[in-house]
């Protein structure tokens, strides 16, 4: 993963050291020597992450961070405070200023790269989220949630841990904001993780009853848990297992003894990441659904049914089966609109779609093809059955009046239906054209009838 990193420090040697370390991992590095220049560079260079020294003359890192987070143009850039201070009050001050994470000098390489990569992924995810929401909003697919951060309060956290001092610290540190489910048995924890929705899984590598790294690998291998962030608790001397965990896909770690504020910062970052992932995925599915669905009737639209028909026909080349297409048109629909208004016309379209849905199988596909024209695709259906289905639909439309004006009035509605059976080596467009020709014959033959294509 490559990214642009802004390094802010008033000591040139520190800047050169971080620049060399990041450059060796193929990060693009820009630098600033004080707070004001850092703010300028953040606007000019649009970095993906900022490594910000705390102790600087003039404007310290806390104030720089506050200004970055208060500016809409830079508030989404992750900030890691890099400091020689190791006092808890300084860490709290950094978090309150808006810092996303912090590192203590001298900076450990493993910690540096793990933190940078984790927060860069988070930013890229949020950038993509905002871009997609803006695009979908501009074309009217969905209303974006703007720049609001997804709520993380009450997020569910699964912890594989034995009862003891560390378990108590985790509960005390996180219990006020998150819902913590602590489990000692690895098999039970895996079952819960696969069957329930968790925003984060915390794994103590010193868990006496299980191999913590194997548990992490199982989480990454299972489809249900592949995207869940994993935070491991590790001893400071156990760098080998730490590196192996990061290689397996662990997203972050905390070195024991557990510092409450550090744990809070790490958990907050990972829970936010999961919230962004979920929001991005949900918005994507909403956009796709709206792109292939007719807004008025809730049916699939012409684009979707055309693609679906192509897929069915291509599959038929390997699996021999009959396939029928019904083209259905509401008779005299223009007259309905002219005499009763477009609102009544919309009510008729919605009820028409509902009656079609109620009278086709789950494997059939019904869609609004355009205007007052609908299509039904019937896989695994022979000619006789297709005709019976079409006649049933015609009767369901004509035999019961359609309510309009919120139920205050009623209309008698009929429809014409053309049916075509897929011929050998026939293209989708040709099949639809024949069904449409049969529909044309039905309408010109007196309407309210079914015509089978030759």
Structural features, described:
This protein has 454 residues and is of the alpha/beta class. It folds into three domains: 107 residues, 3-Layer(aba) Sandwich (Rossmann fold); 145 residues, Rossmann fold (3-Layer(aba) Sandwich); 151 residues, 2-Layer Sandwich (Alpha-Beta Plaits), CATH 3.30.70. It is built from 15 helices and 17 strands. The protein has a five-stranded parallel sheet, with helices on both faces. Strands 7-6-8-9-10 form a five-stranded parallel sheet, sandwiched between helices. The chain has a five-stranded mixed sheet with strand order 12-13-11-16-17, with helices on both faces. It is elongated.
Short description:
This protein has helices at residues 12-24, 35-45, 61-70, 88-96, 109-138, 165-174, 186-195, 212-221, 239-248, 260-291, 302-316, 333-340, 342-358, 383-398, 428-444, and strands spanning 4-8, 28-32, 49-53, 79-83, 101-104, 156-160, 179-183, 200-204, 230-234, 252-255, 323-330, 365-370, 373-379, 402-404, 409-411, 415-421, 450-452.
